[in-house]
Amino acid sequence: MTQAETDEQLVRKSQQDDERAFGELVSRYESKVYSLALKMLRNPEDAEDVLQDTFLRAYRGIKSFKGNSTFSTWIYRITANSALMRLRKRQLPTVSIDDADEREAPINIADWAPGPVEQMLNQETQAAMTEAIDALPPEFRQVFVLRDIEELSNAEVAEILDLSVAAVKSRLHRARLKVRNRLATYFTEPPTRRAMGAQ
Amino acid sequence: MMTCKEVLESLSGYLDEDLKQEVAVEMKKHIGLCTDCRAEFDTLTLTIKLYRHFETPSMPADCHDRLVKVLELEKLKRTPGKE
């Protein structure tokens, strides 16, 4: 059995116009790129636009890719930037990243944690979680999705977004508080109102 | 003893186990004694746990087909004599 080629090998071959090698990179990363775009944009059509835009840019730019970062970091960076541009174009009425709405009073955990996480994750809760992400300003949303959903490290997120690790940590903390406060509002609503709102 | 404000500001770092040992010990002590900060800690922990289970639909198969077509068109543009 032959050993799978590494990303580095495939990148080198792609740089020498090996179309098969680039196709292999597409197969390896297309689902991840689509998934990241969908988590950031919440819309399948927009996610597909980002997917195509990302691989077109990668195809056009592969020869100038110097390998200072890994291919996965590079492709994630193109994806995150493409998604960010679309988020900004939408001009949704999100709050400024300087607004400090995260300093609300804490809420009793007993009100919104009736059981294990797996039991809480019904359709309605997923919808509330989606709304909480949607309400984040684009720059916070990028960090939150990469760090807390994609589970990348602070250093990886910093490299992808071209930020300092300190900036990632700061944005992440504020994004988490904003998301938590949104969910708190949802969980502490009376169940009947919650159910009506979900219809 | 850390103040509640200091604890809140370092909460994410504490959850990520990204604080100096002595600060983490102080945080743990404070959270054990302060009801408000414990509520902050518990709700933030639960928020992160929930999103670790957050799922999105997988990429539809026809999405791959359209991507391949887009890249093939780009390749044709690049081929000498086809521009």
Secondary-structure map:
The complex is a heterodimer of chains A (about 200) and B (about 80).
Chain A: H1 7-15, H2 19-41, H3 44-61, H4 71-90, H5 117-120, H6 123-134, H7 138-149, H8 154-161, H9 165-187, H10 191-198
Helix pairs in contact in A: 1-2, 2-3, 2-4, 3-4, 4-8, 6-9, 7-9, 8-9
Chain B: H1 4-9, H2 11-15, H3 21-33, H4 35-52, H5 61-78
Helix pairs in contact in B: 3-4
Short structural summary:
The complex is a heterodimer of chains A (199) and B (83). By secondary structure, chain A is mostly helical.
What does this 3D model show about the protein?
The complex is a heterodimer of chains A (199) and B (83). Chain A has 199 residues and is mainly α. Chain A is built from ten helices and no strands. The longest helix of chain A has 23 residues, at 19-41. Chain A is elongated, with a radius of gyration of 20 Å. Helix content of chain B is 72%, strand content 0%. Chain B is built from five helices and no strands. The termini of chain B are far apart. The model of chain B has no long low-confidence stretch (mean pLDDT 90).
What is the count of helical runs of chain A?
10
Number of strands of chain A: 0
Strand fraction of chain B equals under 5%
Distance between the termini of chain A: 54 Å
Roughly how much helix do the residues of chain A carry, as a percent range? 55-70%
Radius of gyration of chain B: 25 Å
* SSE sequence of chain B, one letter per element: HHHHH
Task: Kindly report the average pLDDT value of chain B.
Answer: 90
Anisotropy-based shape of chain B: elongated
First-to-last CA distance of chain B = 71 Å
Biggest interface, and residues per chain? A-B, 47 and 38 residues
Question: Which structural class best describes the helix and strand composition of chain B?
Answer: mainly alpha
3D shape of chain A: elongated
Structural class of chain A, by secondary structure, is mainly alpha
Q: Helical proportion of chain B?
A: over 70%
What's the count of strands of chain B?
0
Instruction: State mean pLDDT of chain A (0 to 100 scale).
Output: 86
Radius of gyration of chain A: 20 Å
